[in-house]
Write a sequence for this structure.
């Protein structure tokens, strides 16, 4: 699905006419602003200069306001294009709307822990990737309670999990 916004001319809207354009959000803010300007110039209303975002697609669960920061919209679209659903899920669950636009990718990459089949699979991955699982005696490894460990990771506030697309998306909470 394309990541795009529908920008409407408010002068036309207030005159009872629909005039707007779907714009690819995965381009620079300057390119988006240029397309908004072209749309306004094509309006039949004299002095058309105000606009609003009346719809959007491809942003997952991320909500956009009618008058979003176009630089932020551009950045979010690019990150969704690069990282898929994981980014939009992270954005909503980790309060990313409060991060500065230029911090978004860095914060996402710091917190993103991958998509896994279950919370238990993530717990196994975490212990294996840190080498902690190998430190246990082999007999203890067979009896380790990954379900309880995953529950403790979540309840302790160290990690959060989001179920989407048949997977568990894991994020470090730091």
């Amino acid at each position: 699905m394309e990541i795009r916004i529908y920008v409407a001319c408010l002068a036309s809207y207030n005159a009872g006419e629909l005039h707007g354009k779907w714009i690819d959000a995965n381009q620079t803010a300057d390119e988006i602003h240029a397309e908004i300007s072209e749309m306004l110039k094509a309006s039949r209303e004299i002095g058309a200069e105000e606009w609003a975002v009346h719809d959007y697609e491809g942003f997952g669960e991320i909500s956009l306001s009618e008058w979003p920061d176009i630089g932020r919209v551009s950045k979010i679209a690019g990150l969704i294009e690069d990282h898929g659903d994981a980014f939009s899920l992270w954005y909503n669950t980790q309060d990313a709307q409060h991060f500065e636009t230029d911090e978004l990718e860095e914060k996402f990459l710091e917190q993103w822990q991958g998509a896994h089949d279950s919370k238990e699979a993530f717990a196994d991955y975490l212990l294996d990737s840190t080498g902690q699982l190998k430190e246990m005696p082999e007999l203890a490894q067979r009896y380790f309670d990954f379900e309880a460990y995953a529950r403790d990771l979540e309840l302790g506030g160290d990690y959060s999990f989001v179920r989407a697309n048949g997977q568990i998306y894991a994020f470090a909470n730091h």
In short: The first helix runs from residue 10 to 14. The chain has a mean pLDDT of 96.
